[in-house]
Design goal:
The protein is an alpha+beta fold. It has 7 helices and 12 strands. The strands form 2 sheets. Strands 1, 2, 3, 4, 6, 10 and 12 form a 7-stranded antiparallel β-sheet that branches. The chain is globular and about 80 Å long. The model has no long low-confidence stretch (mean pLDDT 91).
Length: 315
């Protein structure tokens, strides 16, 4: 009798496991169906906007971006950073907002961990077109050279400090494709430094006309601030952090900083209004190319090698 009961229990557990697997598959299918439907609906809504978009993308955005970055102030405390306002031509910025993917496409991850890598695997045609242009043309051809020129002195000092044998101008850079991050009520990322090989972090605030300016990015100095041991994100005890700046969430604003010392973070209160708050940013980094990274690593002695070892990609 006891053996029969055990056999039934095992059988019931197996059936329950199978039912849970089926439920998970059905949930995934329902989410995919919702995403495909949202993409088709957005394609229909934006079809008439595509000719206008092509006109916007054909316009030269370089002079506007170069001027905006050149005119900004680079602050030194607690690390080199700049706030670039009106960084993109207005019609390009508006097109990026219009091309934000449907909310359903972010649903593959839990709330406040939702993000989409760009270029997209699945998105409306308008979204694919404008965001691919942004990451393959605007960033590498206009934003990256402008930012590197404005931060040239700070980057050179950083390279000399860590690789004294290397001529900073021998280091070549590339831009990551980046990701759109969706933040909601209760979002919090504590003080930290980004993955170490991302020398310059760029955060474009995708603020819409009705979005509040609160809850941007907080910048901190760090007491007893040692160098991160490893290339992974470096999380810092908030008790050692002192906030020195709060960069507000303003449309068409880009925060750029040297990922060197100090810390940055962000949060949105649990009771923030409206209840269905959506807050979008686009983050990308300027980092040494694979070849330059190998060159820099080759000059590190045994003592310093662990400081630059490990995960170098996004968290």
């Amino acid at each position: 009798m006891v053996e029969r009961m055990r056999a039934l229990e095992q059988q019931n557990a197996a059936i329950l496991e199978q039912l849970q697997a089926v439920a998970g598959q059905l949930s995934t299918l329902a989410r995919r169906e919702s995403q495909l439907r949202a993409v088709l609906e957005r394609d229909t809504d934006l079809e008439r906007q595509l000719p206008k978009l092509e006109h916007v993308l054909a316009k030269a955005s370089g002079p506007h971006i170069e001027r905006a970055v050149r005119q900004t102030t680079v602050h030194d405390d607690p690390f080199p950073y700049a706030v670039v306002d009106d960084v993109l031509p207005g019609d390009l910025y508006s097109s990026l907002l219009r091309g934000l993917p449907p909310l359903e496409l972010f649903a593959d991850r839990p709330t406040n961990k939702q993000q989409l890598a760009v270029p997209f695997r699945l998105a409306p045609i308008y979204s694919q077109r404008v965001w691919r242009h942004f990451v393959t043309t605007v960033i590498p051809e206009h934003i990256m050279p402008s930012v590197l020129a404005r931060f040239r002195e700070s980057v050179d000092v950083w390279i000399r400090r860590n690789w004294p044998a290397i001529d900073p101008r021998a280091v070549e850079f590339h831009s990551s494709d980046g990701r759109i991050i969706l933040r909601r009520r209760g979002y919090r990322i504590p003080p930290h430094r980004d993955p170490k090989w991302g020398f310059l972090t760029c955060i474009l605030y995708l603020a819409r006309p009705d979005d509040k300016a609160e809850w941007g990015t907080q910048i901190y100095s760090v007491q007893d601030d040692p160098e991160a041991r490893g290339a992974a994100p470096h999380w810092i005890d908030p008790q050692r952090c002192v906030q020195v700046a709060d960069v507000t969430f303003v449309p068409n604003r880009m925060l750029v900083f040297l990922n060197s010392v100090g810390a940055h973070g962000a949060h949105i209160p649990e009771d923030a209004e409206p209840e269905d708050l959506e807050r979008y940013i686009f983050q990308f980094r300027l980092a040494p190319t694979v070849e330059s990274m190998a060159m820099l690593k080759s000059t590190l002695d045994e003592e310093r090698r662990p400081y630059w070892a490990g995960k170098s990609a996004d968290y």
